[in-house]
Amino acid sequence: MKGTIPTVLLALLSGSSPSSAGPVQRRQETVTQTVTASGAPSTPTQWTWNAGGSQAWPIHESCNATERALLKKGLEDAAALAAHARDHVLRFGNGSAMYQKYFGAAASAEVVGWYDKIANGDRSRFKIRCDDVDGNCALPGWGGHWRGENATDETVICPLSYTTRKPLEGLCGYGYTVARSPLSFYFGADLVHRLLHMPSVGEGAAEHFADSYAECLELARAAPAEAVRNSHSLQYFALDVYAFDVAVPGEGCTGKAGKGEEEGKKEDGHGGHPAPTATTSGAPSTTSSAAAECHTHADGEVHCA
Ligand SMILES: *[C@@H]1O[C@H](CO)[C@@H](O)[C@H](O)[C@H]1NC(C)=O
Ligand SMILES: *[C@@H]1O[C@H](CO)[C@@H](O)[C@H](O)[C@H]1NC(C)=O
Ligand SMILES: *[C@@H]1O[C@H](CO)[C@@H](O)[C@H](O)[C@H]1NC(C)=O
Predict the structure, then answer these.
(1) Contact assessment for residue 192 and residue 82, using Cβ atoms and an 8 Å cutoff
(2) Which listed residue, of 18, 23, 163, 269, carries a Cα 20 to 30 Å from 292's Cα?
(3) What is the pLDDT of residue 91?
(4) Span of the secretion signal (predicted)?
(5) Pair 269, 143: CB distance under 8 Å
C-alpha cells in the first residue's frame, strides 16, 4: 500500500506536466515558423486580438469566501444597473424625461459609453481587494476606497460594505428613495461609482462635478457636458431608471428631495477619495448652498435656479 501512493502521485505528475507544457511548446513552434517564413507566411498565424482581456470580475485573493460571493453579487448588480441605464438611453435617447432630468441637453453617446464600459468593458486591468492595505477601513463609515496614488487600478472594499449594502432586488424597498437615500445604499450603485474611479474604466474623465441629488439636477441644466461624466449623476440616473423601468414598473421610487437628502449624504460613508468630503463631519457641506437654490414642485420634481 505504502508504495502505491508515490506511484499514483508520479503518474499524476507525469500525466499533468506534458499537458501543461503543451501550449508553451506550441506557441514556441508558432514563433519559429513565423521567423522562418520571413516572406509571405504560407499558413496564417493564429491571432487572438483580445488575448489577455477578461470578463471575469477581478476579485483579489485577499477576499475570503463570504466577501468574494457578496462582492461578485454586488458587481453583477453594478453591471445590471449600468446595462439597463444604457438600454434606456439607447431606446429613448435624449427624448427621455429621465435623461433630460440628469443630463439636460447633452448628447447621449457619452452616457451610453460609460455605462457600457461598466457592463461590458475589459476587467483585466483593475482589481478589487478586501485587505485593508492602506488602513482606511478603520475610518468611521468607510465602506471602501480607491487606492489612489498607492495603486491607481485598485479599490479596497471594507468589511462595512458587506454588512450594510443592499442587493439590487431590494430596490425601492427598505424606505429607499432616489432623492433622499445615500448613493451607497445599494451595493451595485456604490460599485458603479467605485468602478468609475478605476482609470481603465473612468479614464480620469468620469469624475466629481456635483454630489447631492439636487446638485446633480442643477448640473444637468447648468453644465450638461459635465453632467454626462459626473459619477454621481451616472449613479442617480441608473438607479432612477432601473427603479421605474424594472423594479417597480411605471412607478419607481424617485421620492422628493428635502432635508432627508442631507442626512443621506452624511450617512453615505463613501470614503476613499484623495480628499474625502464631509463623510464623518456633522458640519453642513457645500451642498447646502446649492440645494437652497432649488425648490421642490408639487409633482415632486426639484427645480433649480
Ligand atoms: C435631442 O436631439 C435632437 C436631435 O435628434 C436635437 O434636435 C434636440 O435639441 C435634442 N433635445 C434636447 C432636449 O437636448
Ligand atoms: C497610501 O498609503 C499611505 C501609507 O500607507 C496612506 O497613508 C495613504 O492614506 C494611502 N492613500 C490612500 C488613498 O489610501
Ligand atoms: C470574511 O470576512 C468578513 C469580514 O469582511 C467576516 O465577517 C467573515 O466572517 C469572513 N468569512 C469567512 C468565511 O471567514
Answers:
(1) yes
(2) 269
(3) 98
(4) 1-21
(5) yes
Does any domain span residue 8? no
Query: CA 274, CA 146: separation in Å to the nearest integer?
Result: 8
Is 69 or 303 the better-scoring residue by pLDDT? 69
- The atom of ligand 2 lying closest to the CA of 274 is 13
Residue 25 lies in a domain: no
From residue 53, how far is each of 48, 120, 122, 199 by CA, in Å?
A: 10, 12, 6, 16
Phi and psi for 207 in degrees, rounded to 5?
Answer: -145, -160
Report whether residue 152 contacts ligand 2, using a CB cutoff of 6 Å: no
Q: What is the pLDDT of residues 109-126, one digit of tens each?
A: 999 999 999 999 999 999
Q: How many domains does the chain have?
A: 1
Q: From 60, 66, 158, give the residue whose CB has the most ligand 3 atoms within 8 Å, as the site to mutate.
A: 66
Q: How far separated are the first and last CA of the chain, in Å rounded?
A: 85
Q: Cα–Cα distance between 217 and 236 in angstroms, integer?
A: 10
Q: Considering the entire predicted model, what is its pTM? A: 0.76
Domain span holding position 114: 65-304
Regarding the beta carbon of 86 and ligand 2, being less than 6 Å apart is answered no
Decide if 238 is inside a domain. yes
Q: Are 159 and 133 in contact (CB under 8 A)?
A: no
Tens-digit pLDDT profile for residues 91-103: 999 999 999 999 9
- Where residue 104 sits, what CATH number does that domain have? 3.40.390.10
Is 100 near ligand 1, meaning CB less than 6 Å away?
yes
pLDDT of residue 258: 76
Would 120 be classed as within a structural domain? yes
* Of the candidate ranges 17-31, 99-113, 190-204, the one whose mean pLDDT is the lowest: 17-31
Identify the pLDDT of residue 295: 33
* Residue 211, C-beta contacts closer than 8 angstroms, at least 6 positions apart: 232, 265, 277, 285, 287
Q: How far is the CA of 127 from the centre of ligand 1 (A)?
A: 38
Residues lining ligand 3, CB < 6 A?
64-67, 159, 162
92-102: string of b/e by CB count within 10 Å (b at 16+)? eeeebebbbbb
